[in-house]
Design goal:
Layout (H helix, E strand, L loop, with lengths): L2 H5 L19 H19 L4 H26 L8 E2 L6 E2 L1 E12 L2 E12 L4 E3 L1 H5 L10 H13 L2 H11 L6 H16 L4 H8 L9 E13 L3 E12 L13 E5 L3 H14 L7 E6 L3 H10 L4 E4 L1 H16 L6 H12 L5 H9 L6 H16 L6 H6 L7 H15 L8 H17 L1 H10 L39
Helix pairs in contact: 5-6, 5-7, 6-7, 7-17, 8-9, 8-17, 8-18, 11-12, 11-14, 13-14, 16-17, 17-18
The structure holds zinc ion.
The site of zinc ion has 8 residues, from loops.
Length: 489
């Protein structure tokens, strides 16, 4: 017999009599009642398909859920209106407002709870003891479990599409604005994390030992903003050398992304490097697009790194020059590309520079400028273009790693047709996307909460509710399988 079958329990035979809609029936009787309801529907409508059964059960489950939530809240002892200790200073703080109502959307339905608001004059801090008792989220209109789901949708598609997709998965609609609000709220929480290092470590645990070698790839990517037009987002990947599979994807990459200035980027990247114990790594490879600020950053953060100009960027820049010489859509451009690839795939760009100089003979001023720019770019990066040597040493010369950051972190979510971002939400989304792609969907939401705490005593910690460790119990023991309150003795 399979494990799943063995775990199946028989239905409860005692009615909870909790005053809810179905409270007079035991779970076993309830099942029979549902079967009768289905039979009635079949008799009146003359049809009964799986669709009808599923939708009946789903809507009943939601009713049960809301009844159970209401019953749980009703069963709590009334708040006595006495002063309660302030969570900040511990001094007793009196009630300021009685019975303030709050609605919280949960996966089991809407929770409505009325509770007292206390205020500590000394700390100028207001609080709801009942919220803490019920572990309600500190702000917002959704439970933690809902937030996790809403966030997962938000990370993967435009907000309007999120709302549409939500409708397919859940029986109650939510607005596209709620997806936006949740993103902003979680992003603010991310910003109040204990440290960027804590975030990195919660997203992806540090290695037990410093890795043999590390690869860092940094790049820029333009995002369209509402206020400022195109703005550059800076992205970086940090990945252990053994996780770089040539010409393929990388395993367990750590991503960093900011829509902001170089200082912010440096701080974020430093945290990722610290999380990889970079100070103790013997060999570090830094791949860049050739932008000067990139190499400056490399020198500051990893002064001993082997700097490599990303091969694809070296070719792309040659194509800009090729278009200036031959024309925007000349049939010879593919040949130009092949030739450049051959020429620069050597121990220095000298051969490529020589051939480029041959093109200057009867060039126009504009064409000369294009050649000059490319030659200058190759000369500035000569030491970083020893591709044959790098390849022989088994070092990555780019593309895959640089592209993965660009595509997986930004393009997939933030550069879809017609997308324009407010600078603030753009900043939020860029940071969240990098963390999301580092942590993975299962760990992401948890990691942000985890990083609010002070740094871990142990540097490495495993996910408490990871897929292999979780005891799958979807109903708390106070409820029956139908989400109804259990009969208390
Ligand atoms: Zn206080």
């Amino acid at each position: 017999m399979s494990k799943r079958r063995a775990m199946k329990r028989s239905a409860n035979t005692v009615a909870p009599n909790d005053g809810t809609k179905w409270g007079h029936l035991s779970d076993a009787e309830l099942l029979k009642e549902m079967a009768r309801e289905l039979a009635r529907r079949q008799a009146t409508r003359g049809e009964l398909d799986l669709d009808a059964i599923e939708s009946l059960i789903a809507s009943e489950q939601r009713d049960f859920g809301e009844d159970a939530l209401a019953a749980t809240v009703d069963a709590l002892p009334l708040e006595d209106g006495t002063s309660k200790p302030c969570p900040k200073c511990g001094a007793l703080a009196p009630v300021k407002v009685r019975n303030r109502v709050r609605h919280v959307m949960t996966t089991a339905g809407e929770l409505r709870v009325s509770r007292n608001y206390h205020y500590c004059n000394k700390c100028e801090h207001g609080f709801y003891p009942r919220d803490a008792e019920l572990k309600l989220p500190e702000e917002g209109e959704v439970s933690d479990a809902m937030e996790k789901r809403i966030l997962d949708f938000s990370m993967n598609g435009p907000f309007e599409q999120c709302a549409e997709r939500w409708d397919i998965h859940y029986p109650f609609p939510i607005s596209s604005n709620l997806f936006r609000r949740v993103v902003d709220r979680v992003a603010r929480r991310r910003e109040s994390a204990h440290s960027q290092l804590a975030l990195q470590q919660a997203a992806l645990p540090s290695p037990e030992q410093p890795p043999q070698w590390l690869v860092i790839a940094a790049d820029g990517s333009m995002l369209l903003t509402r206020e400022d037009g195109w703005r550059e987002a800076k992205v970086a990947t940090v990945v252990r050398g053994e996780n770089v599979i040539p010409d393929k994807a990388v395993v367990d990459p750590r991503y960093v992304a900011v829509l902001g200035n170089q200082d912010e980027f440096r701080a974020a990247l430093k945290a990722a490097l610290d999380a990889e114990l970079a100070d103790d790594v013997m060999r570090i490879v830094w791949l860049g697009d050739g932008a000067r600020e990139n190499w400056t950053l490399a020198k500051e953060l990893c002064p001993f790194a082997i700097q490599i100009l990303d091969f694809i960027h070296a070719v792309q820049n040659a194509m800009v020059c090729g278009k200036a010489l031959l024309g925007e859509s000349d049939a010879c451009l593919p040949l130009w590309e092949t030739r450049i690839r051959q020429l620069i795939d050597s121990d220095s760009p000298d051969a490529a520079i020589r051939e480029l100089m041959d093109c200057t003979l009867d060039a126009t001023d504009e064409q000369l400028a294009a050649i000059d720019q490319l030659v200058g770019y190759y000369r500035a990066n000569t030491k970083r273009m020893r591709y044959r040597e790098f390849r022989a040493a088994g070092l990555p010369i780019g593309s895959g790693i640089v592209e993965s950051a660009h595509k997986h972190v930004l393009q997939a979510r933030m550069k879809q047709a017609g997308q324009r971002w407010s600078v603030l939400r753009g900043r939020h989304m860029v940071q969240l996307r990098a963390l999301y792609r580092t942590a993975g969907p299962r760990r992401f939401h948890w990691a942000i909460r985890e990083a609010l705490k002070s740094p871990p005593a142990r540097p490495h910690h495993t996910l408490p509710n990871g897929p292999r460790r979780a005891k799958h119990s979807y109903t708390p023991s106070r409820f029956t399988r139908f989400g109804r309150a259990k009969l208390s003795k």
